[in-house]
Hints:
Shape: globular
Structural class: alpha+beta
Number of strands: 26
Strand order of the largest sheet: 12-13-14-11-10-24-25
Distance between the termini: 26 Å
Largest sheet: 7 strands, antiparallel
Oligomer: single chain
Strand content: 25-35%
Amino acid sequence: MRHARRRMVRRVARLAAVGGLLLGGAMVTRAVASEPSGTAQLPRTTAASAAQTGSALVSELGTSRTAGTWIAADGKPVVAVTDAETASEVRDAGAKAKVVPYSMDDLKSATAALRSAPRVAGTAWAVDYRTNEVIVRGDSTVSASDWSTLTQVAENIGGFVRMERSEGTFTTRLNGAQPILSTGGRCSAGFNVTDGQNDFILTAGHCGGTGSVWFADNRARTQLGATTVQNFPGADFSLIRYDGGKAGDGADIVAIGDGNGVRITGAADPAVGQRVFRSGSTTGLRDGTVTALDATVNYPEGTVTGLIETDVCAEPGDSGGPMFSEGVALGVTSGGSGDCTTGGTTFFQPVTKALGELNVQLIVSAQQAGSGQGRQSASPAPTATASAAAAAPGAASPGSAAPATEGGTNGAELLTRLTDARNIGPGLLVVGGSLIALVATRYIRTEQDRKAYQRYYSTTWG
């Protein structure tokens, strides 16, 4: 009876081990089948499709027949055109058309005239595609005489230049997603980038000059690195090289507060009308809309051109922080006016321009990138078809949620990875455990047979 029970236990153990091998093999096969290929395109914002459609039409039709493009409230691309024939071509291509009196050539001529006028600190201008105007703003620091002089320049240009006074002052937002500190002040880490050998923090150029040393705490106990490249004024970006050369775990995540983060999957240029998000240590996660591109701002420290204009609020302490939408990096916070109580205007340095000039690549999610370390350069976005449309801007989200940590993998995150059916790990664990169980049952049976053999022959031979 006892031997029968042993045989039954061994038989059940062997069957369980064989079943485990089959199950583990199926899990590994499923995980491998679900892995993204190395040539898969990185995810893009839904707004990017509409933006690419509009930009392609503008490029094809030319700046003498068009005056910019933007995303409508329903997510469709709109192209400003100067005549009915061009409007018909735009509609045939699957976009909306708006006939306007001034071409992009006219609008660019106006901004060139403004740039050639005497510089006035506290002023900014940008082309408003939707109203077919150049908007010139002056903050509270601009004197009445300087404003009068600039108004005269605008009147000489033509009736499509609109003058507006703004509350507050246009200032760089020194201080911000994870705070970084130096003797010059406090700024925000923007995005992590790499040149293939070393990793860097991409942040605002006005935060500190070349050689500035940065820390993760206000007591200077945890040194992050030092600024190796600065571009400000003119543009507004800089690189901080990590001590040790590596950013560490979580380099593809930007913090949005309360231990939460957003996983970054790529880089792109935004479109007018697109909903965007930005994060900073002073005011946390905020959202708004892109109102203009290629904006010029005359900060007290100097003039910066080629900026993204938005109605997202920001305050001192948010400088250098990341702007993104649906996980795609768009810009780093430069400066603006107003605050997050009354609202205001905030300008951002485009990420793609900074990546191109610095010759570095964005560190993105390795899973999204396909294989190896996740990296993306400032290469153009995938071409969209003319009929492609975005979701309504209000439906956009920051991106895929991820925990924001100080570095390393905590136990809960490790457990999540091990139990994720999309990973190979769980299947390999099941296969390994089943092999061990199978070998163990075989060993136990062999050992039992050997002892039985010894007992038999010891009895036979006395």
